[in-house]
Amino acid sequence: MNIAFLCRHYGKSFRGAETYVRELSSHLSRLGHNVKIYPHIFSGIDKSTQILISTNGRLDAILARFWCLFYHAKLIIPGQSGPGIDDRWNLWCFPDTFVALTDFQLYWARKANPFVSVVKIPNGIDPAVFNSQVTPLKINISRPIILIVAAFTPAKRLDLAIRAVAKLKRGSLLLVGDGDQKDYLIQLGNQLLGRRFAALKLPYSQVPQIYPAADLFTFPTVPYESFGIVLLEAMASGLPVVATADPIRAEIVGDSGLFVDPTDTETYAATLKHALNTSWGKKPLIQAQKFTWGKIASDYDRLFRKLCSQ
């Protein structure tokens, strides 16, 4: 089957949507599909495309809808933007199927546009790449190490983690990523944590090695973030998680971590301490195994065949 992805920043950044396209396209190719990736609708999409999957929203989503109508293809829009105005817009572009990443988003999408078919297929993890047997990078800060892998942007709320870890008597914070808030976060981290803080920018090939170097993963993102593939990467590497208390993070993390309102600095710090002092066993690994890209690619394969049979 001929499959095309639209992904504006593919190959330029390694955030959630780009990881989704890279991993899903690779696993679909292994199932025998002919997969191509384009930055936008004006990139000369192969006219024999049967399924178009657009991670680009707004104007590109509208144009993708018209392209599919003209060339008799099926349009799938995955909910990578998260419940909010962008995915509401995507839903009202009337894709053939909107893919929700969680149960919460599934129910939200069905209310946002009851006239569009909505199915749930989450994002995933490749356990061959992210696992506890990977050789860890050497990090020159004191343990225990609390890790965040994320874009340095306001929506990730990384400053809240810095302030919370500063309340702990022991433990360091390691930020891995890049973004517009880089200078601000480094200044704040050095001011509040001193030698107990480090910020790194790593090539994607080294990211699997950073998780085994840590003792705990935390993710204080806004409640409306669509998913958080880094949560799966952390759990697949054996790390427990402290995440924002919202339905999306609760579904992803399950019993492999604790949940908190990160804007409450004192409670956030106490929750981090509690997580560090808890024996988690294999709970993170077991939870991550529910989200393998192989299984997710098979779910998409069934969706493709259903759409093309209609």
UniProtKB/TrEMBL annotation:
Signal peptide: none
Any one biological process term the GO annotation gives: lipopolysaccharide biosynthetic process
Molecular functions per Gene Ontology: glycosyltransferase activity
Record keyword DNA damage present: no
Every Glycosyl transferase family domain range: 139-279
Keywords: Transferase
Matches recorded under Pfam families: Glycos_transf_1
Residues that span the membrane, as ranges: none
PANTHER family: GLYCOSYLTRANSFERASE WBBK-RELATED
Entry protein name: Glycosyl transferase family 1 domain-containing protein
